[in-house]
Specification:
Length: about 300
């Protein structure tokens, strides 16, 4: 009996070792804080600004035959106070299954249409904080999503998602495409939730130390009545550990709301202390017309530090 128990313990240990070899989990995150002199309308203030700090857990299990199960859990928090930023795991709570067929995703996760367009050209500060793109029309139906992503098709990947109608009454749709052509990278994104919808096209081109990008977006009934065109251009020049950034965005009037246009520009400098740590400075300004329904006049001068782990 003693020998049997020893044999069973050995089998259990070997099984645990095999399971450990076939699966993995990692912790990752970002701490991003800046000291800013902000002017919101006519009110000025000096603040410590949290810039989408987060902590996450992700992992995969090799199921054999090229099939893998994976998960992502991501929580946002205010690094300046330690308080939670929204719901626990509100940034992402995803379960997925991948293989040669592509990937199936379930749960809550950010729009791939956004990642393929606005986020892709936001080369400064990960499109976070007060210098984030204030004009992009984002349709927030990120929960209860089911998506399919294709494998790499010669540089082209596609993803289509549907958000189920539970507790809302209608389905929402999210479609994205990315095409990697080396120096030139193209993208497109489409979202629809009831009458609200948006479509955007993006391009990014790298030429030595220069990177140029931009997107054009057409949305309807997202932030205001009628339709609107939104254009953003961005550029980055790198010199050693230094980065120089310029971003300019212009959103026109909504067709059924006069004086609803807005402009935003950002000048920024970043210095990469390491592959994971960056010090930066920027000046950003948003100017909105009198009837703008989604953004107001705002400006900020900031000095910040970002660390990825």
């Amino acid at each position: 009996m003693k020998k049997l128990h020893l044999a069973m313990a050995a089998v259990a240990a070997l099984s645990a070792g095999a399971a450990m070899a076939q699966s993995n989990a990692t912790i990752y995150g970002r701490m991003n804080l800046s000291i800013e002199r902000q002017k919101d309308g006519g009110v000025s203030n000096t603040v410590m600004q949290n810039n989408a700090s987060r902590i996450g857990f992700k992992g995969t299990e090799d199921l054999g035959g090229g099939l893998k199960a994976g998960f992502v859990l991501e929580h946002g928090f205010n690094a300046d106070t330690g308080a939670a930023s929204g719901a626990m795991w509100g940034r992402q709570s995803e379960l997925n299954l991948s293989g040669g067929f592509g990937m199936v995703r379930l749960g809550r996760y950010t729009s791939e249409a956004y990642f393929a367009t606005a986020d892709y050209v936001s080369m400064h500060n990960h499109d976070t904080g007060t210098s984030a793109d204030a004009l992009y029309a984002y349709i927030d139906r990120d929960s209860n999503k089911l998506a399919y992503r294709t494998p790499d098709l010669g540089g082209l990947t596609l993803e289509a998602a549907v958000s189920l109608r539970e507790n809302v009454g209608n389905y929402a749709y999210d479609v994205a495409a990315n095409y990697d052509m080396g120096a030139l990278q193209l993208g497109a994104g489409y979202q629809k939730d009831g009458d609200a919808n948006q479509f955007a096209l993006r391009a990014l081109y790298t030429m030595g130390d220069f990177t140029f990008g931009g997107y054009v977006q057409r949305d309807e009934d997202v932030y205001g009545p009628g339709s609107r065109t939104n254009l953003r251009l961005s550029g980055m020049y790198t010199m050693g550990a230094s980065e120089f950034h310029l971003n300019v965005g212009r959103a026109g009037d909504y067709s059924d709301l006069d004086d609803s246009a807005a402009t935003q520009y950002t000048l920024a400098y970043g210095y990469n202390l390491s592959k994971r740590t960056k010090a930066y400075a920027f000046y950003t300004k948003v100017s909105a017309d009198s009837a703008n329904p989604y953004v107001g006049d705002f400006s900020s001068f900031a000095l910040g530090l970002r660390h990825n782990f």
